[in-house]
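Lab notes, practical 5.
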Amino acid sequence: MPIEILMPALSPTMEEGNLSKWLKNEGDKVVAGDVIAEIETDKATMEVEAVDEGTLGKILIAAGTEGVKVNTP
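Output from the prediction step:
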């Protein structure tokens, strides 16, 4: 069963962030804790980790995309 990776909120007031880069590619195997992407806001940069093991499926948001709304897959 697929697990969606959502744009997380880095603070209670955060509404959007930038997807800086993907550290894994479509088809790569991942395990829980693997860093798969980096996101940033005007105040912080955060690593996004896999929550389970599996294979990274389709990447829906390209690296370098700005203004990604919180909870967007």
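Observations recorded by the TA: Residues 17 and 41 are 5 Å apart (CA to CA). The mean pLDDT is 95.
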